[in-house]
Predict the structure.
Amino acid sequence: MYLPDLMKCEDGSPVLSPAQWEKRRKELLHVLETEQYGIQPRYHGKTRGEITDVLTPCCAGHAQLEKIQITFETPGGPFSFPLLFFCPSDHQPRPLILFINFRPDAYDPYFPAEEIIDHGFALAVFCYTDITSDDGNMKKGLAGLYARSHPETDWGKLSMWAFGASRALDYLLTRQEVDRRSVAVAGHSRLGKAALLCGALDERVRFTFANCSGCGGDALEQTKHPGAEDYAFMARTFPYWFCGNRNQYIDPAVPRPYDQHFLLAAIAPRYVAVGSAQEDTWADPFSAQLCCAAASPAWTIHGLPGFVGPQAPAQVNTAYGDGCIGYHLRDGVHFFSRQDWLRYMAFAKKHMAE
Ligand code: GCU
């Protein structure tokens, strides 16, 4: 197995200190953006949130559900999208989970809102297609508001969804109900990939939760097991999730200058927890676990534990959450289950005070 060296800078020098890590992290983000996800515009503008509706009580009276319209500037004019905010009724600061979802609904099988509130979190949710459609149309939604003149490196849709999460955070971080030091971004599957990218790029995110994110997310490409999604399938089926440069690596004979451990490592020294489902061979649970192990040196250089767990495949229904990279494997299929949420919340609670 050939894995590009995480701890060696492009000039060949080894990364031996947290200061050198900062330089290396920028290199990792650069290679991930220019060769895989496309370059995300850096945003320095103002983001506004307008509360358009408040439903109270919700979650047994422990929260009120606010509908908020988020607006920010783009080169093509202002862009708006709806955000749901389950705001704790006592209006006290809470750790926040921002969940990027597939659907716009307030009640949805992928997030147990009441349980999340009862665990002491505030919860915000938006629907990814309210940012931009999940297809090759680069004219609709946010995609259409930015020039696209460099197909090799123009941002793909995963990066746009991650950008939407960052703009939601711009607003949420102004809310008194949000503890700014304990902000998490979560997503499942393709949106787990987007959550990882958001966590890697946006240093305000303290916890990244990527559920069943697989290929192009938490699964190492070099270790793929039978039945797992591979680079070529993904490039053929979802080319618009990425930038054009990624296509040059479809041929496995062409060495890739990165693998997915770069993405996890770019989150260091903040926290990331990934979860897999035993029957989800498409996402490749063991390659996700190996990715956690391969990313660990990015934390050890800070004197912190990375992935603390076995080298052999994880025990099913077990979480390895002692280090800064959490991993759990649950039984069942590709889904964002209540079991997964309980693992992620336990991981955040365990590390929040550190
Ligand atoms: C497809 C795709 C995966 C993706 C998944 C999803 O199966 O191949 O990469 O994670 O959709 O988002 O549900």
In short: The radius of gyration is 19 Å. The pocket of alpha-D-glucopyranuronic acid is lined by residues 189-190, 214-215, 229, 234, 282 (CB under 6 Å).
